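Issue: ligand-bound run for iron/sulfur cluster - logging full I/O for the record.

Environment: standard queue, default settings, no custom constraints.

Inputs:
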Amino acid sequence: MEFKPEKYSIEDESMKPFIDAGEICDYINNANPTKESVRKIIEKSLNKNRLNLQEVAVLVNTNDPELVEEIKAGAKKLKENVYGNRIVLFAPLYVGNLCLNDCKYCGFKSSNKNAVRKTLSKNELIENVKALEEQGQKRLILVYGEHKKYSPEYIAETVRTVYDVKIGNGEIRRININAAPLDIDGFKIVKEAGIGTYQVFQETYHPEAFKIYHQKGAKANYPNRLTALDRAQVAGIDDVGIGVLFGLYDWKFEILSLIRHTNHLEACYNVGPHTISFPRLQDASENDIDEKYKVSDEDFTKIVAILRLAVPYTGLILTAREPENIRKEVLQYGCSQIDAGTKLEIGAYAESPEIDQNLNKEQFLINDSRTLNEVIDELVNDGYLPSFCTACYRLGRTGEHFMEFSVPGFIKRYCTPNAILTLTEYLIDYAKPETAKKGWKIIDENINKMSDSKRKAEVIKRIEKIKAGERDLYF
Ligand code: SAM
Ligand code: SF4
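Outputs:
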């Protein structure tokens, strides 16, 4: 790997880029996995310790099929120990695709004249949120292109609009954001609106590769993007999400960089990223990306397993970009959140006469277009406990406090009971009868497994309250 160091002018010294591509390449070039070293590293992770860059480099260089299977088995075991069987569900909602950037891989890039540009009006936004609530969604991620129109004030306004939409028992209880990097004041404005996580994906951490894909607009500024979540932290947003778009550059380099970014956030703010996302490049309108760095299914499943082992306590988000069979496999290795019922066409959740359903304006293609009920049905068939829990953020268990709670016992005390209660709501309010039947069985199984008899009794009491009409009960 070649790397030419580059100088950036950064006004604030504390927000200097922290990726040294040469150093990361050295780690990769000098890591030689042996049976003993790989097993020792898996063991360290199973004892719930974060792995360092050197150890992660050993895992990424592991090619021996037997050892790769051990890495995957280790991830599976760790997932079961740390996260149990619950999977948190959410849906993305694209608010607008105006964009001044020209990211080579994205259907929304400014040079794509075939993209139909659209920003949801307030009414359209409300109609879409109502439709999502009527599916049973409780957690959304709002997504925006990068454009003057999508100012912090605008983002905050859309967040407030979404929180205000209530239909039947439906409401959105947590809104995460995926939007352009802001300055500190901008992040403060968005925080005020009550957001959960703010996500900014670096796409590729390699400065030279980054330059090739991002030649126009604000996104061409690598350090500005790299330090976005530092500014979010300074502004008081302590749940931040990092990510890489796999397929733009060497995946080994990207994994180590994600860990480097995690270390940086932990060192500076005492709290690592709340979530890591690892989208794989999908076909998009007018997209002609060299396939040199395309990530195979085999490597992708390995990537997820390595990430799980590397950061035992960070949420891993898997999206509908991946096909059903891959989603099914990597769920076992420790993804804690997935989207379901996803539609990427702007305005497509609502069948409102005001929204032209014939416009084809997808940012990229998705591979899993099942409904929320279908996804839940499969999750319960496979023994997972679907969850719409939003308790931590609403009780102030964010950032450092969330990390503190990410210790043994936390999942049992909070996450499982809250998953049971939110699934109870879903089964009563939205599930198809056959899914509800299976869902109640999963709820019974999970209640029976609860060892804390006091909490168990309280969960049973609250389920009865939900059956009697109460909603939004959480620990
Ligand atoms: N405009 C903001 C930005 O670029 O950060 C936020 C929205 S952007 C639509 C969200 C993410 O979609 C990007 O960060 C990128 O990782 C992902 N994305 C873009 N093009 C993609 C493609 N062709 N396949 C898969 N993911 C893609
Ligand atoms: Fe715009 Fe984001 Fe797409 Fe880049 S990835 S073109 S910034 S919407």
